[in-house]
Amino acid sequence: MTISGRLAKISLLTETLYQKTMSDFNILLDFIDRAVKSRKYSASTASGLKAALKLFKPELNKEELESPSLFKENIDSIYRNVSLKYGKELSAASLNTYKSRVSKVLTEFESYGSDPTKMSNWIPKTRLTQKKNAQKHSDVNNVENEISSNTQDSHAIPHIPSNSHKIELSLRPDAKISIILPRDLSVSEFETIKTILESLTPKK
Fold this sequence. Notes:
Layout: H1 3-21, H2 26-37, H3 43-56, H4 62-66, H5 68-73, H6 75-86, H7 92-112, H8 116-121, H9 130-147, E1 164-172, E2 175-182, H10 187-200
Antiparallel strand pairs: 1-2
């Protein structure tokens, strides 16, 4: 066997071993981290993508957890389950945004995730105009505002239902927050809030 043939075989074996050791849901999170290190994703983009994956993860079966390609193939039926689960907490626009983020990760992982050379040659699509850039940020901000605690005007006095708790916190001298939660907050609702807050947390 020639030297080039041996190198090709080693490359194939290395790729196969990587797929076997990372053939589960975590391979997608690992791909996002590698994309950040390679400057393909910004830290904020990576945070949003991971939050979307975490929202979808509980709805995956064993086979889908172990196969990103099967996850991608069944994305529409998985999305329906996510919509049924979070339909009361999140709007259709918010849910669609999360689906788009998940689809983005799955598609780009399929194209660039298994081969370091492909990752190196990957040129992310850039925004063509400042207007599109501003619109994208506006859409993301609208989603984040909608799925976080309802923001009230600082001069308005919100109505607090009798079956709710109001929590006021002073994070720092110039930053205060108010949270209104139902007294009968369920575990699943708590997990939803936790997932949303984690998606808004800056990466360390």
